[in-house]
């Protein structure tokens, strides 16, 4: 089959974001091994301040480099992990690894705020908050340095089950971000109940923000709504200078996307921060000299 063809075969799946039952069974056993053998990695994508491009923090994104098949995208293997009961273990690893990395960066003189993606099933574990708190304590990281991203649809999926966990997170001092916002049809009342600090506008709206009036109006409305509720607004998937300008005009607070940087390894992030800091300083020098 195409899957056995090696290298680029998963590109096919990436396109359709799903695979049949037999593929899923193969994937889940490969994924189990990958977890045991430590083949998962986190890459980090910067978020910058909309107004001045200053570095704010990163989103941690899971990477699975399959020994024969190359990079398997998370949109493909996270649903498999959820279906086959692997997501709690993987989620624990993500939080542990993010905390370990924050500590390593801090020891190296860089305080980096990290956002991790958390799945609905992870949130439903009774001990999720306790485990997260203990990972933070073990690495001496303040809760305010870690942000939990949950998708709007995940937050809505099982409001009763997640509500108490989300409230508990708030009590521990962990900030919450509502990911892929605009795709989940949540109500105003629901949003107000969540202990969230941030909304991330889904990439599908960002894509068209400078070319389509409906997308622009939607972003405009979300920014106003978020600000009225005291939430910070992040636009994800910013790829062009046109999108950047439109999002700044509309009052977005933070931007993230290939236009600034692709997700990268922990080491490369530090060079990126240093280079960017230097570039921004020299820009400031240029303008004062002019
Ligand atoms: P997400 O949380 O919405 O993450 C943003 C996705 O958009 C990432 O894809 C990122 O690489 C991609 N992206 C960033 N900027 C751009 C851009 O300018 N253009 C385009 N076209 N894409 C951009 P990625 O890494 O493939 O992750 C996909 C999804 O997988 C994530 O969407 C998230 O829902 C899930 N995921 C990733 N890591 C984890 C994890 O550790 N745990 C859980 N539960 N889910 C994860
Ligand atoms: Mg996310
Ligand atoms: Mg997102
Ligand atoms: Mg997304």
UniProtKB/TrEMBL annotation:
Q: Which residues form the EAL domain?
A: 24-277
Part of the intact protein present:
422 to 711 of 711
**Taxonomic source organism:** Roseateles aquatilis
According to UniProt, the name of this protein is Bifunctional diguanylate cyclase/phosphodiesterase
């Amino acid at each position: 089959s195409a899957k056995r063809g090696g290298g680029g075969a998963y590109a096919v799946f990436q396109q359709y974001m799903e695979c049949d039952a037999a593929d899923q069974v193969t994937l889940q056993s490969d994924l189990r091994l990958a977890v045991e053998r430590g083949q998962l990695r986190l890459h980090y994508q910067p978020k910058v301040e909309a107004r001045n491009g200053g570095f704010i923090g990163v989103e941690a994104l899971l990477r699975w480099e399959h020994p024969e098949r190359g990079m398997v995208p998370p949109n493909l293997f996270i649903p498999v992990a959820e279906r086959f009961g692997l997501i709690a273990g993987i989620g624990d690893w993500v939080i542990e690894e993010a905390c370990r990395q924050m500590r390593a960066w801090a020891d190296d003189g860089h305080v980096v705020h990290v956002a991790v993606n958390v799945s609905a099933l992870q949130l439903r574990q009774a001990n999720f908050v306790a485990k997260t708190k203990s990972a933070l304590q073990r690495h001496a990281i303040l809760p305010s340095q870690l942000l939990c991203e949950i998708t709007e649809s995940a937050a809505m999926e099982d409001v009763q089950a997640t509500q108490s966990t989300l409230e508990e997170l708030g009590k521990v001092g962990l900030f919450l971000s509502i990911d892929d916002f605009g795709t989940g049809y949540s109500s105003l009342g629901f949003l107000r109940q969540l202990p969230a600090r941030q909304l991330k506008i889904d990439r599908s709206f960002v894509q068209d923000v400078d070319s389509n009036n409906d997308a622009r109006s939607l972003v405009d409305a979300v920014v106003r709504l978020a600000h009225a509720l005291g939430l910070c607004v992040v636009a994800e998937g910013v790829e062009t200078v046109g999108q950047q300008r439109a999002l700044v005009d509309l009052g977005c607070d933070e931007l993230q996307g290939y236009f600034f940087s692709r997700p990268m390894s922990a080491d490369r992030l530090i060079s990126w921060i240093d280079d960017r800091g230097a570039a921004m300083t020299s820009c400031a020098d240029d303008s004062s000299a002019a």
